[in-house]
Amino acid sequence: MAENLEKAGDFVLDLAEIMTVTGKSAIITDHVVGITLYEDIQSPLLTGTISFNDNTNLKDLAPLLGQEILKLKIRTPSMNKDDEIIESVFSLFNHTHSMNVNQNNTIHNYKFSSMEATEDSRTNVSRAMTGAISSIVSSLVRNDLKSKKHINEEESVGIRNIIGTEESPLALIQRLMGQSVSKKYGSPSYLFFENLEGFHFRSLESLYNQAPTQSFSQSSEGGYSTKLRGFTNVLEEFGSIRKLTARTNTDSLAWSSNGGFASELITHDIFNKHITHHHPYNYFNSFDKEKHINSFHGKNQSPIHSKAAVDDNGSTLADFPSKTYLLPISFVDEARSMDAHYTDVLGVSMGFTGYNPASWITKRTSLMSNFDAITADIEVDGNTVLRAGHMVEVNLAPIALDKQEKKTKPDRFFNGAFLVRNIMHEFFDIKEDRKGSHILRVSCVKDCIEETLPSIDRSPEPKVFGTNKEEPKILPV
Question: What's the predicted TM-score (pTM) here?
């Protein structure tokens, strides 16, 4: 019979089992002190740590060598569906330290990761693979990483012939990820990551196009409701933010130099013997043609930067493509971007899509610089349902709300739909009944706002002020 959920943050540790190198199992469920589990859409695998009390000298007698397998099953009381339970197998790979409690008890701390990490560390891919990049990635996960986990694969465009050159499966996937363009959204914003649901090879737009799993907000009333006559409202507490660090990662200097605002591409076609200067990518000009997070949730999408002029000519931050890519291509059919390396005896294309940086590199540079421009790092009472890659709602009241003209107006930056970039699950204070406290440290991000930011068409920089004592003059060269 399922336990009742008494308060937000409750969890039950159903199983913690170590399978040793001798093939024997040691159940340590009753001895676990704490567990952390980390999932991140910018990391291909899950990682974590486990601490447990050893009062039988298990480390020496088993022995524990950092080559063991760990089985975990953790759940929030009253949540019993498969997708609401953490139940997985991990690889213990590093004994970080032990701490003596007394003569008969020692607490060991181990790091663990997904089983696929072990397979990746001892596997090199050295063969040709044909198909859409998305299907090649799924093949690498199944055949090379030998994973049995669910794969959420979003189909990519084109048919490629890829040759692995003594690369690990994950290294090859990371290389292909940047070249992938979504067939559905036409976007080069693919991510490859694992969360507790399995592996994902998906674009940012695919992640944005999900209904929110949970809503988070700050309230002066905490998790208490007068409707419940002073008793704790558990469902409200799950959405109550305990700690918050809010920031905008809009470093205009860094964005200007790394291509976040603008970049350009020059390609050399080694088959047709010509050089092409492609049209520069411009953040502001491209924004409305793209689908950002708000557009999937019924709200307006506007850039998180102002189009204010930075000079007297009315130029914006995106009018200076300071990052330039110089890359080779080889097309036998330029109109269809067919690879010149693969032709028949008559020189006719065999139908493989060529390496085509014009379809992804400048746009991806901006999208990946921009997707976490607004970040809310929050700490909340934990549950075993939320995953990295899920959508959530985060709503913060503006600072000094009582001084605002519109009392109901939400914060300009921190409201609405957010993408969960990463989650740190922390399980601690485990009692004899295997129950304890669960905290989630969640990083939520978004790439746009609702209202267009104000701007002017001439640079506001004063011409005469401080050390600038007179109007600047252009000197002859």
Answer: 0.91
